[in-house]
From TrEMBL:
Chain segments annotated as transmembrane: 20-41, 107-129, 141-160, 291-312
Keyword Transmembrane: yes
Cellular compartments annotated: Cell membrane
Protein name: Type II secretion system F family protein
Domain Type II secretion system protein GspF: 179-307
Keywords: Cell membrane, Membrane, Transmembrane, Transmembrane helix
Length: 321
């Protein structure tokens, strides 16, 4: 603690103010860490799962609801302080959060609150670590502190991008199977909404994320939202922009009441071919990706086993002379 206060005192010049500032930062870090844990736990489920959990816990004590209400009020109160002013950045981050499965209205505030918390933790940790390296100059200490804060503030963006890409990829790979089931259901005589509801239940065992998204579409259609709007919101949530043409065909067929079996079958074949092409593309990249582990891991061991004894014998021969 004395070391941290002395570091702060080098910038402020008043020891009392430095002590109070350190205590304030420690308190804020503890509060921020507690809030971040509750945010992560609260945002770990999709809206559909939260609704199912709410239905299943009707007869349970209602203290959880009050806790969530207090947390929501807390997030709303800090929203203007943690979210960026740029509307473009907010829109881009909100879109990534939706693609990653975080559709709650407070997800954006939670994300930026976590970034600030990680930055504060990195700041405190880096200051503590530099205490054990006394040979570092003040300039280097400041540089490493700023570097750690910058890295920790960037890591959530990278993690969110990876999470969104992975979920979108899983949805894209599972959609041809869902489309095949939709073709079979519609040709069996079910209406489009009934067929979509059946597909959402059946595809849940293969892709829970896609099953939940299709169930959300069915739920929105049951509460009065038109099917075209619900399907367009499905594209916005999942990021599957290549489905726009299919959604237009489905919307037109729903409005006109015409059969869509042949059209859906053609789209199912097309999406299945795209999935096969993506798999072949990934397989073609394996040779290039294997170069690095071969060069760094396998070849040195091979040469050590194959050429090592010969080198030892040659060295022994020259040493005997």
């Amino acid at each position: 603690m004395e070391y941290l206060v002395s570091v702060l005192n080098t910038y402020i010049g008043d020891e009392n103010i430095s002590k109070w500032l350190f205590l304030g930062l420690a308190f804020l870090s503890a509060v921020a860490f507690t809030i971040s844990i509750s945010i992560l736990i609260n945002n770990s489920t999709t809206p559909l799962k939260r609704r199912l959990n709410k239905i299943s816990s009707i007869n349970k004590p209602q203290f959880t609801g009050s806790l969530q209400t207090e947390q929501k009020n807390t997030l709303e109160s800090i929203e203007k302080y943690v979210t960026p002013k740029s509307k473009a950045e907010q829109l881009n981050t909100k879109q990534l959060l939706m693609h990653a499965g975080y559709e709650k209205s407070s997800a954006l505030t939670s994300f930026y609150a976590i970034k600030i918390i990680l930055s504060l933790l990195a700041l405190v940790t880096s200051i503590i670590v530099t205490k054990f390296i006394p040979e570092l100059t003040t300039q280097k200490v400041v540089f490493y502190i700023l570097l750690s804060v910058a890295v920790t503030s960037y890591l959530p963006n990278m993690f969110l991008k990876k999470l969104a890409d992975k979920r979108t990829k899983d949805l894209r790979n599972a959609f041809p199977d869902a489309l095949d089931l939709l073709v079979v259901s519609t040709e069996a005589g079910l209406g489009f909404q009934a067929a979509l509801n059946r597909v959402a239940k059946e595809i849940d065992s293969i892709s829970p994320a896609l099953g939940q998204e299709l169930q959300i579409v069915c739920q929105k259609a049951r509460v009065g939202i038109s099917m075209p709007v619900a399907l367009n919101q499905f594209i916005e949530r999942t990021g599957l922009t290549e489905l726009q043409g299919l959604i237009s065909i489905i919307t037109q067929s729903v409005k006109l009441g015409s059969s869509m079996g042949d059209t859906l079958r053609d789209y199912a074949d097309e999406f299945r071919d795209r999935r096969m092409q993506r798999a072949e593309e990934e397989a073609a990249k394996i040779g290039t990706k294997m170069i690095f582990p071969l060069v760094t891991c396998i070849w040195p061991g091979f040469f050590a086993v194959a050429v090592g004894p010969a080198i030892v014998k040659v060295l022994d021969m020259f040493a005997s002379r």
